[in-house]
Design brief:
The protein is mainly α and 225 residues long. It has one domain (3-221). The chain has helices spanning 3-21, 23-43, 47-78, 82-89, 94-122, 134-156, 162-189, 193-221.
Amino acid sequence: MNVFADAALLAAKDLRAELRSRGALVAAGTLGAVAFVVAAMAAGPDRAQLRQLAPALTWLALLYAAIAMADRLDLVDRRDDAFSALWLALEDRRAIYLGKVLALAVVLLVLQGVLFGLAVVLLDLPLSGEALWLAPVAVVAALGAAATSVLVVALAGASGQRTLLMPLLLLPLMVPVLLAAVESTGAILVSAPAAALQWLALSAAQAALFAGLGVLVYEHAATPE
């Protein structure tokens, strides 16, 4: 089998594992809901201010979800030396990286749908025909966040300071993805899709950069001890 077929099988495995537990998804969705409620209480009845806060809150919640989910997907494989067995079984270990990126991107897309739904209800977020432009923004941002998160998890490895290292390494790298997603979402919500395309291109470049970097260095960074 080629690397892409192996990656698809590994992604399906990770998604089945998450569907069985759903713990991380529920926790991330709850975090987003709490953030929206707190923001709504702080902003008061000013709908314009709520609408300005919605994109930043949505993508910030997604950022922390990416950290938690990437860590979880890696730890599931490392239990009982399952990661070592998987490493030995695969001829092309790049499939592990691509599979985790694909699985995490799918999970983040689902979570984005939940968070945007919460934003519409809790923050009085208006939706129009231009909201369809949110779909490519969501896909590109999910891929960028997934590619970056999986690579950083591999670099952090099984270190005892992993919980501390991951946010310190990942947050600076995710700033371009987060900024591009917030700006493009804000442009779409004010019916300016042309402006959103510029930020979407930046986000796509970030996703391609880290996906390529991950394919190149993942095998060396994630080698089992």
